[in-house]
UniProtKB/TrEMBL annotation:
It holds the Pfam family Peptidase_S26. It comes from Candidatus Desantisbacteria bacterium CG_4_10_14_0_8_um_filter_48_22. Its EC number is 3.4.21.89. This is Signal peptidase I. The active site is at S108, K151. Keywords: Hydrolase, Membrane, Protease, Transmembrane, Transmembrane helix. SUPFAM superfamilies: LexA/Signal peptidase (SSF51306). It is a single-pass type II membrane protein.
Amino acid sequence: MDEKKLKKAEPQDERGQTSEVGEWVTAIVIGFLAGPFLFTFLKFVNEPYLKWLEFLLVALFYRFYIRRKTVRISKEVKEWIEVFVFAGFLVLNIRAFVVQAYKIPSGSMIPTLEIKDRLFVSRFNYWKKLPKRNEIVIFIYPQDKKKDFIKRVIAVEGDTVRIINKQVYVNGAALNEPYKIHNDSGVYPFAPQNPRDNLGVFQVPKDHLFVMGDNRDQSLDSRYWGFVPHKNLKGKALFIYWPFNRWRIIK
């Protein structure tokens, strides 16, 4: 009698395992298809790794809440999973919404930022507002969405800008810029193909910024490729944390 019951139970276990796998496959497919779509309203969340987080959240939500399915695991393993999931979720959200670390790859912001400086950037400053003049910002390079640039805000929406022989004028007044340097004593006359030292009068459009590097003669900035739209902003530079002897608040 017991042997008959045992033989009957075996096919049920196999069907149960098959059903379990099918449920997970369904959850993964739904997460992959629906995750990015459901989270498109988070316009400021454009990091590639967050696409995986969106997929995971939707898949788990479908699996455990909609389908009411659970996984039979030991209490100890469950506790470790909870620790790793919570830590990963916390780290991802801190990076996405609070602060993020960056490494300076070029010398366009010398002397304020040196090559290989590592700094923390605030991620939430500009969700609802534009930065102020002189703030140093991280943004998506308008001509290549895969690159992030860091520059100083020189003018904001509505400002008029002009450059005469390396001197920047905003709203008709010459800027006092103790942070900038010029390594080339030569001055190029105004020309569309080389606006480094001279640039005609123009006005910054609404919800845009005019930015420049502090290393003026060696910076690819708004003089060459135009304005930065508000939607491209990723954060405000806060302070250098490495190397340790350069630790400082960024101004």
